[in-house]
Design a protein that fits this description.
Distance between the termini: 42 Å
Structural class: mainly alpha
CATH class of the largest domain: Mainly Alpha
Number of domains: 2
CATH architecture of the largest domain: Orthogonal Bundle
Number of helices: 11
Order of helices and strands: HHEHEEEHHEHHHEEHHEH
Strand content: 5-15%
Largest sheet: 3 strands, antiparallel
CATH topology of the largest domain: Arc Repressor Mutant, subunit A
Length: about 270
């Protein structure tokens, strides 16, 4: 049994790391060994925090791949779903994470290479349709700009969730939490090959349960101006229900955790008695 410096939940809460780690987990952050102090804190406090988070309808999950995250099992805390671009980019980055060549580079890749890989796996037309679901026909230049813009937005969101580190304007580092995207295809032979087949078909499989996708409601103003008025809105990509599952995470608008009551002085407790 692993030794721990925490004997009770109060010891965990009193640690100066607790507020930041707690808020990060509630906002969907995946915490791995590269987070150093945070990860060590969770390893030491895991048994106590597992019971703590169950009270909020969540499971503190720690896969063998070496990262922590909160998985909602109830509706006490709010939840936000990843968008289609975020999921597709996450799955493509997972394929690159599983590539031995990426391991040799320390997990660092070029952003342009990641987008090129996604386009190669899905096909350029399919990628454009997935990232421009509101239009049947879109000017090619506008469509490509939209793809690049949504790809950049997806990277920022995935970075906030601890899946990648944005190193500079051209590079990013892939992190172990990306393996959560491959979890549903484990046991189907090579995870990389199974996941690549799903990405190529535009199918999304993440987490457990039934997926509710946040559709992007905005329509690019430039696309409106440069496309014909005859174009009717295109339907969003159809995702087969049998291969789609839930990937919940806490959004940035999550309410703050309930404060713990301040200890009362002995004199006050005696007066109340």
């Amino acid at each position: 049994m692993t030794d721990t410096r925490y004997l009770a939940l109060g010891d965990v809460v009193a640690d100066e790391l607790f507020p930041d780690v707690d808020l990060a987990l509630r906002r969907g952050r995946h915490i791995d060994r590269e987070d150093d102090l945070w990860y060590t804190f969770l390893v030491d406090a895991q048994a106590l925090l597992e019971a703590f988070y169950r009270r909020f309808g969540c499971e503190l999950t720690h896969p063998a791949d070496g990262y922590f995250y909160l998985l909602p099992i109830g509706d006490k805390l709010g939840r936000r779903h990843l968008s289609v671009p975020e999921m597709l980019v996450g799955q493509a980055l997972t394929l690159l994470y599983l590539d031995p060549a990426t391991l040799q580079s320390g997990g660092v890749i070029k952003r342009a290479d990641a987008l090129s890989h996604l386009a190669a796996v899905m096909g350029g037309d399919a990628l454009t349709r997935a990232f421009n679901p509101k239009r049947k026909r879109v000017d090619e230049r506008v469509a490509q700009e939209t793809v690049r813009g949504k790809f950049a937005e997806a990277l920022r969101r995935l970075a906030a969730l601890g899946f990648v580190d944005l190193l500079d304007s051209d590079a990013l580092r892939l992190r172990p939490g990306l393996l959560r995207f491959a979890e549903p295809v484990r046991g189907r032979g090579s995870p990389a090959e199974a996941l690549e087949r799903l990405v190529a078909r535009g199918e999304l499989v993440l987490g457990d349960g039934a997926l509710e996708i946040d559709e992007v409601d905005e329509v690019d103003e430039d696309a409106e101006e440069e496309t014909s008025g005859e174009d009717a809105p295109a339907t969003a990509p159809e995702l087969p229900s049998e291969v789609v599952s839930e990937f919940d995470d806490f959004g940035e608008d999550m309410p703050l955790p309930e404060p713990f009551p301040e200890p009362q002085p002995e004199s006050t407790r005696e007066e109340e008695a």
